[in-house]
Design brief:
The protein is an alpha/beta fold and 217 residues long. It has helices spanning 10-22, 35-43, 63-73, 88-97, 111-119, 127-141, 159-169, 174-181, 185-199, 204-216, and strands at 2-6, 27-32, 51-54, 79-83, 101-104, 124-125. It has a six-stranded parallel β-sheet, sandwiched between helices. This is Response regulator transcription factor.
Length: 217
């Protein structure tokens, strides 16, 4: 795949380029150190990558504004945020803009699989991003009417399945969910497979994103 990187730290750009090239994951077609440069490179002939790795906070035009302008130019653009900031406001804004994912820099090992997932059409959230976004949704939900109807996508789920979806959205893995609900890991896996089939979602990341978005609406 072709990847571009926009980060205000040239060392980060260089390191990521080295990792992606050395692992045979991608060809890095350009790097930029601010949002304005990223937009300019993207609009240049041959400058549109398969995935754009984009930092949030950069001098001048930040990553969120750059993403908004880039997606306006090309609605099919795949923007994957890679940043040190796990602020839920940033995460919510990024997803609202149409970004394909939000990964925290500290988890460098997740960059390659995240890029591959985005290329496969998935939306990717790092564990810390999911946890922070979930916390914000839970706080908002406490102020909402508890009698609010269940969103259509989740209406066919059982009460137990609703519990499991909420825990997936909290960032818990199967083992942690099993401990919380006093179930076996195999039972949890079976429940999640059934939930994905009922909701027509591909994986637990999409499940978490859809659940959290539903709680917000």
């Amino acid at each position: 795949m072709k990847v571009a990187i926009a980060d205000d730290d040239p060392i980060v750009c260089s390191s990521l380029s080295t990792i992606l090239t050395a692992t045979g994951t991608a060809d890095v077609i350009w790097t930029a150190n601010d949002g304005q440069s990223a937009l300019k490179c993207f609009q240049a002939t041959g400058g549109r990558p398969d995935v754009l790795l984009l930092d949030v906070q950069m001098p001048g035009m930040d990553g969120l504004e750059a993403a908004e302008r880039i997606i306006a130019v090309d609605p099919a653009a795949r923007v994957l945020f890679l940043t040190t900031f796990a602020d839920r406001e940033y995460i919510s804004r990024a997803l609202a803009l149409g970004a394909k994912g939000y990964v925290i820099k500290q988890d460098v090992a997740s960059v390659v699989p995240a890029l591959q997932a985005v290329m496969a059409g998935q939306t990717v959230l790092g564990a810390e991003a999911v946890a922070n976004l979930s916390l914000g949704k839970q706080e908002e939900q406490t102020r909402k009417d508890p009698s609010k109807p269940v969103p259509r996508r989740f209406q066919t789920l059982t009460d137990r399945e609703h519990e499991i979806v909420a825990l997936v959205a909290d960032g818990l893995d199967n083992q942690a969910i099993a401990r919380r609900l006093y179930l076996s890991e195999g039972t949890v896996r079976n429940h999640i497979s059934a939930i994905l089939a009922k909701t027509n979602l591909a994986n637990r990341t999409q499940l978490a994103v859809e659940w959290l978005s539903a709680q917000e609406s």
